[in-house]
Structures are given as C-alpha cells and as structure tokens.
User: Fold this.
Amino acid sequence: MQRLGMALCVLAMAACAGEEAAPDAGETSGGCTDPRYRDGVCQVDIPCGVPDVDCYVVFKNDLDAATWAVSRTRLAPIFPSDPRFPRARAIVDRAWDMFRAEVQLGDLGSMRLGLAIMDDHTVNAYVMADGEPGKMGFSVQITRGMIESSLSDDAIVGVVLHEITHLVHHHALISVAQKTRKYYIADLGEPIGATRPENFPARDAGRAWRSLGEVNGVLTDEGYGAFPTGGAFANLWDHYTWKLYDLMPECTDVVNRVQILRAHLPSSPLDDKLPVKPALTDQIDSTLEGVRACVSAQPYTLDQLLADLGDEWREYVTERITPAEAQVFMNAPAVDAVLELVKTRRKQQRAIELDFEAQTGAPWSKIRFFSIEEMADDFSTRIGQRHGLGEIGVSSTMFALLEDAAPACVEALATPPVPYGKNLLSEHHAPCWRIAHARQVADTVNGTSARLRIEPTGETWTPTERETPKPLY
Ligand SMILES: [Zn+2]
Assistant:
C-alpha cells in the first residue's frame, strides 16, 4: 500500500519536473561557449556555471554501472534484476529529475544517472572518482543496508540529492574537495557557512590543528596527558603493543588495559567529548605507568619499532617530528618515545586553540569549516524543499545514524545552540548540527528563487593525476 502510494508520487513528480524544467534541451553545448567545454578534457574552472561533461564516465545501463562500481569497491553488487532494485531506481530517477529542474547543468542534464546497489549492510550512499585523471563515475552507489533500512523514499531521495551535488561539483576529485574547504567563526549566532568569507586566523588555526589531529586525534584536553587516543600516533602505539605480545607476553594484560580504557572514554552523544575529570586522569596515568613498569627491562627502541614497521612508517614519523625530537627519541625506549610525542602534540593542539581564542576573542567551540559536505547538504535541502519533499535534506538519515543519541539531539534542537563537536578532522562530523543546519537552510528557501549554479573553482586547474576511486559519502 505504502509502496503503491510512493510509486504514484514518483510518476507525478517526474512529470512535474519535466514540465517545469526540460533543462537546456536542444541547446548546443548546454549554452556554454567556452572552447574548453566538451573538448574531451575535464576542466573544473570553466566559467559557464555548469559542470564540464568531460569529467564523467556515463553508463548506458545499470549493469554497466554495477560492473564499474564492483571493480572499484571490490564489493558484490545487487543486480538490476533483483526485486529490491526497482524501488531504488525510482528513487534515483526522482532525485535526478528534481535536481536537474533546479540546477543549471548544461549537457550533463540530459545524461542518464547510473545506479549501483552494493551488497553492504551499512546504511550509506556514495559517489566515486573513476581512477583515470579527472574522471568520475556518473553513478550513485547505494548500499543494500540503506535500501533495507526503515528510511522512507523521501529520506533516501534527500541522500541521493546530496550525492548528486558531490558529483556535479566534481567533489569526488580530491583536489576540488580540498579547494572547497573554508574556515569561519560562528559569531552572531550560527551563520550559514556558504555565505561567510574565509576568516584567516580561523583558517590558519584550523589547518594547523587538523594536521596535528591527523597525527594525534581530536581529544586535546590536558587531562588526557600522554594517552594515545586517536590519529596515526595511536596507531603507532597499537603496533608497539602488538609487538610487545611477542617480546613480553607477561605484559599482555597490562598493555591491553590501554585499549580497554580507550574504548570506554566518556563522550557525549552529540559528538562533543566531555571535559576530563581528575579521576579519569588518574586512571590514565596509572594505566600508562603500569605499561612502563612492566616493560622497563625491555630496551626496544623507537628506532627498532620503525625498523620493524618498515620504510613507510619511518618516513611518516620522521616527517612529523623535529630533528631535536629525533635525536632524543629514536634511541629511547619506544614506550617513552611514543607517549612523549603524543603528549607534546596534544599540548600543541591546545596551544593553537588558546592562541585562536586570544587572537579572535571567540571560544574554540565557535570555529567552523565549510566543506563539500555542508555544500551537499545545502543543495539537497534547497532542492528537496522546493519540491515539497517530506524530509529536509539528509536530516532523516542523520537521525537514523544518531541511534541512541537521537533523543539528546531532539533536546538540543529544541534548546539551541546545537554543539558543533570537537571533531574538525571529519567532514561528516556533528550529525545533529547538520540537522539544525538543514532546517536553517530550508527556512531560507522561497519558491521563486533562481536556479542554482555550479560555481567554477577559483583558479585555473585541470585534473591530471590519477585518483584512487575511494568512496565519497
Ligand atoms: Zn557527502
């Protein structure tokens, strides 16, 4: 019954979108007279306000799209002949019709958008680079988990609109994604990131903090001391402790306590880690002290650890420590070296936060970055809103992903501000903040707005490098 209702709605919507828009049908070169448009090479800076069709591998049917996606993800497909496929295909068609009615797309608007369903139980959807320089698959990949979830058709349309935004803005090309990132400060309430100019102190602090975060994770509270909580150094610590299983099996229990403690660090449901209480700091200190005491007879050094891990790790660590640190730590016991490096990075991250606060007068919690994710949320929200979609953008999916934290999010939405969280490393962080943001964007939509444009990236740049086709969600 439900399904029949949706099917009728799909047909009505498609007809409606067709009448309104018929995007650029019959126009040559989509109205773009730039000689580089459709010259066979992908260029992302053509100032026509439409995506360059040369950037896409277009599939004539979904079997081709599945074959392409399988070869790049190594996941099995759900074939177009599967009974679960038609509903997903109708959802993608509906999303693509809405999208092309609202966004100037030039020749791309008349292309067929592929669909591949991947046999993966997680709830997700993504697009991918092809692997050839400047090429993306003109296809949306949806997981079996999403199709089998309790998400409504409208909710999945919202997600597909988000993915199409990534495709037409060339976001699956990594360099474009990097050029899109922009830092700002949420002063005077919560502004819409797209409307804010870049704030330079925020940019410098954000970039420096993120590069330390890649090494050390996102937990910067002094109370964590030398505890390896995330990033590459936590990974290095894990490698060290696995090594200890062989070298000092009698320390296995003591070493495992670090992992157990890490898995149970307190966190709030909204992506915001809690301040560290003195009791936790004591527990961290005594756990690490336990490891130190147990391995004190073992002279295994950082240099030996890196030799065991191979050139890639040695290069990574060497590039991220100072020559003075190398001198002190390379021949020091690995346990002391890794923990001290962690502690120093955490201190540096905290210094960046304090310096930002002193310089701008804004608390660190007000730093924001506008990213491809926010842009994709903006588009999916606006398009969905103009088409009377029952769900706003990716909100329903965000709620589903919040799981047990959903009630806390409902409460935060009722009593703003909604926390942005500490995880500036992830483009997908702060799901509850994203719901608040989608509602805010939806409120700005009115029925008579002009069609949305694909703005060219600010500088001349032609993709020339091969990119690993890893999923962009
Ligand atoms: Zn995304």
Q: What stands out?
A: The longest strand covers residues 114-118.
